[in-house]
From TrEMBL:
Protein's name according to its UniProt entry: Glycosyl transferase family 1 domain-containing protein
Any one biological process term the GO annotation gives: lipopolysaccharide biosynthetic process
Record domain Glycosyl transferase family: where: 244-389
UniProt-listed PANTHER family: GLYCOSYLTRANSFERASE WBBK-RELATED
Pfam families from the UniProt entry: Glycos_transf_1 (PF00534)
Family annotation (InterPro entries): Glyco_trans_1
GO terms for MF: glycosyltransferase activity
Transmembrane segments: none
Amino acid sequence: MKVLIVNTFDKGGAANACLRLHEGLLQQGVESKVLLKHKQKSLQQTYEFNQINKPKSKFQLIKHKCLSFLRVIGLIKKSKETPKQQFFKHRQLGLELFSFPESSLDITSSPLYKEADIINLHWVSNFLDYDSFFRNNTKPIVWTLHDMNPFTGGEHYLETFLGIDASGNPIPRILTNEEQLVANKNLILKQKAIEYSSNINIVAPSKWLCQVAKNSTVFKTLDVHCIPYGINSEIFQPRDQNYSRNILNIPKDKTVILFVADSIDNHRKGYAYLKKALKMMQNDDVVLCAVGSKNSGLDSFKNIIELGTINDELLMSIAYSAADVFVIPSLMDNLPNTVLESLMCGTPVIGFPVGGITDMIKNEQNGLLAKSISSQSLLESLEQFLKIKSSFNNAEISLAAKEKYDLSIQANAYIKLYSEILKKEIL
């Protein structure tokens, strides 16, 4: 069985999840390879896509040089902004990514594509050209969703909120006419492209994403499976808290709240709700420990420790182990790697009752779910945790997570799905 995993990047949340599956497949003896648009890491069996372009004719080269010269001397004006550039220019700040379903790249031209038995698409924005790929594709497809983009008109998350009001409650988002028109156009293109391929199976890591994919206009006729992410339990495991705090220079006599702070300007990440909740808390015995790029937006906290960006997974497991609780204030999310990592390290998690977060957090067993999306509800959960934190058993939390999210469990579920699909191809 030759599996080709396709992803745009090898860095980021979706990339981590994708590469962990690749690692798990290799451990199970599967011939897995990864095709990337942008390759930055030196990982086994991962390759960067190289498009072989046809050489330009002499006429095309002369034409290009002439046009460039005329632009330089001012006889030809520079081209105006494209419709896409104008769209992004007027898009509201703080929203998640928006990706169009077009690309100049042809993934089916890759030798890796040609030798594979099955293609496993992952996060392929700005890499996959829907129309040409599905028109030319001759292989069975498994498409692993990491967000909503494959079945939306461009949004990576169909955000229903945009910002926070003075009381700490979400502000409803209203789509502009332009957003709706562009989305509808992209949806039509995606629907038509999907019809070219007869053997596509969708995989969603969370029950929430599985259901919304099933209900979407693009994927409603396809089989949608739910396979959670896998985590390497040898790396993400409970470590001695005092030892972990010594390494990171974190006080041992404080309650430590861990937060990943890379995207504090992204509304969906919900940082504003945590910020307001902590300001209302006013507890000198609580320290906020932030992982991510150091940001002036965190300066307003008196008790804060900024650890900076952590790329090493072993060091990240130490950060989870050093904390008493991990807080994820996302307003909408799939199955966040950070929550899985925290639970594997035995650290309880607090979050809003949204998306795949509800798959992972069992109230008062391995964390707390806030009653609603608001700073007040988050504050109440934080205060409740301070009262009952001794009731959480780190070893039990880690064991339960390992039994559900260990790397081998995910890999075996995919191997079973691949085998079933290939068997049908033979028949």
